[in-house]
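Write out the 3D structure for:
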Amino acid sequence: MAANAPHWDRAGEVRGSGESVEDSTRLWHVTVTVAGAAQNAEAVREAMLRLADERPFLHALRYGTDRAEIRYWEEAFDMLDAASLALRVWNEHRHSAGLPCWEVVGLEVLERDAFNRRTDDRAPAIGAHQPTPQPF
């Protein structure tokens, strides 16, 4: 995290630079890829639309007949917390969104500054747009 970047402490208050990162949350860019037995593409698309309604901070959704990818921002104290939450997202919404019974086959978790340095393709502001599932 950049030295002067604000962050949230465990009490939910914004803190400035020079304070312990151990007691603060940061934003992590998460990409989760799931895969499994082939499903009807339109059924997968519709399930992902329901997932986007249930999980408003998703900013990108991609799908195929046998795999899907979701991208979003997660607020967590460290990368391990963000990864643990990410590994549960698909299963936690499987029944309510009607998602296929697929397993996580890929996970990427990047701290915000690392994500921003990696690409010029900035993710939209958190919660600023409703993603539409796109085919791979």
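The chain has four helices and seven strands.
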